[in-house]
Amino acid sequence: MKKDVQNWKTCVQPEVDLLVSCKGKDGKPNALAVAYACNCSFNPPMVMVGVVPSRHSHKLIKETGEFVVNIPSEEQRDLYTYMGTKSGADENKFEEFGVAWEQGKKVAAPILTDCPVNIECKVVDSIVTGSHEMFVGEILAIQANEEMVSDEGAMIKKAFTPMDFR
Q1: Residue 119: phi, psi to the nearest 5?
Q2: Phi-psi bin for 52: left (phi > 0), alpha (psi -120 to 50), beta?
Q3: Which domains are seen in the chain, by residue range?
Q4: Largest Cα–Cα distance in the chain?
Q5: ∠ CA(20), CA(24), CA(27), 5° rounding?
Q6: Bridge partners, 115 (sequence order)
Q7: Nearest to 21 by CA among 85, 102, 129, 131
Q8: What distance in Å separates the CA atoms of residue 114 and residue 22, rounded to the nearest whole number?
Q9: What is the pLDDT of residues 52-104, one digit of tens each?
């Protein structure tokens, strides 16, 4: 016997919660919590992140065409929650939370240096899917904590334990 599902949002869920960082033309860094994300191409390597158009970060990504996908650790739950509940339009979230960051190697967007993995991306396409604009980012560089990468440069350890914030 089957039962009708009323809350469709819980049917298909991404396994990872990410922090997407960006920087506007004014040079101020920002980041937001993102749950709609996935790999979307192996060759060339690309990821896709969904951002609600009313979010401050949406404007910054549109302005610069760059973002960084930062994969937080379980110990960074407070950072993830903070970035998901505050707006960079109202405050400098990096200063308020004391976020450690540096400019990316290939993009001007900030890397959250305390996150175990940082994926620098250049926007190559986007599609508005209703509530979100899905930014397709070509991966230009990836940095990960040393213990997560083999001598040959392959990821050997998962960067995260999926966080359950819902």
Answers
A1: -120, 110
A2: beta
A3: 16-148 (2.30.110.10)
A4: 57
A5: 110
A6: none
A7: 102
A8: 16
A9: 999 999 999 999 999 999 999 888 999 999 999 999 999 999 999 999 999 99
The values of phi and psi at residue 138, to 5°, are -75, 130
Q: Are strands 117-128 and 101-103 parallel, antiparallel or unpaired?
A: unpaired
CA 98 remoteness from chain centre: 18
Distance between CA atoms of residues 79 and 82, nearest Å:
5
Mean pLDDT of 106-113: 97
Residues 101 and 94 sit within 8 Å (Cβ to Cβ): yes
To which H or E segment does residue 61 belong? Answer: helix 56-64
18: Cα separation from own chain's centroid = 4
| Length reported for the chain | 166
Amino acid sitting at position 28: K
pTM strictly above 0.85: yes
DSSP single-letter state for residue 150: -
Containing 67, the helix (H) or strand (E) segment is strand 66-71
State the pairing for strand pair 101-103/29-34: unpaired
